[in-house]
Design a protein that fits this description.
about 120 residues; mainly alpha; 2 strands; about 5% strand; elongated
């Protein structure tokens, strides 16, 4: 059952909240590392939706082989809820990747400074 509030579904509202939270964290990470903040906020949201898309495909394939029920009979809300963890996981992994690569870059700069002082 989907609750409709002024033609905006609850799952759409969850998507808006997740976009805000993901974008905010990527924005903060980009500001800390002196990168283009708005670009990485948008890239973070895109990484979430790419994960949801790929997770949805995986869920449909697994559902086809595991369940006796046809894939066409599965509700959209059920599919969306099952795909959300894949989006969160892909967003988290991409965030950790960016954080690791950017911190590695700054670590090299610190080593160069120490070598110059000696």
């Amino acid at each position: 059952m989907i609750i409709v509030l002024d033609e905006l579904k609850i799952n759409d509202m969850i998507g808006i909240v997740l976009m805000y939270l993901v974008g905010r964290e990527y924005y903060k990470l980009a500001i800390i590392n002196q990168k283009n903040a708005w670009l990485f906020a948008i890239v973070g949201v895109i990484s979430y939706y790419v994960g949801v898309f790929l997770g949805g495909i995986l869920v449909v394939i697994l559902y086809h082989f595991i369940s006796e029920e046809a894939v066409e009979e599965m509700s959209e809300l059920k599919l969306e809820i099952m795909a959300i963890p894949f989006g969160v996981l892909s967003c988290y992994l991409f965030y950790r990747f960016l954080k690791f690569t950017w911190s590695k870059k700054y670590a090299k700069k610190d080593e160069d400074i120490l070598d110059e002082l000696l």
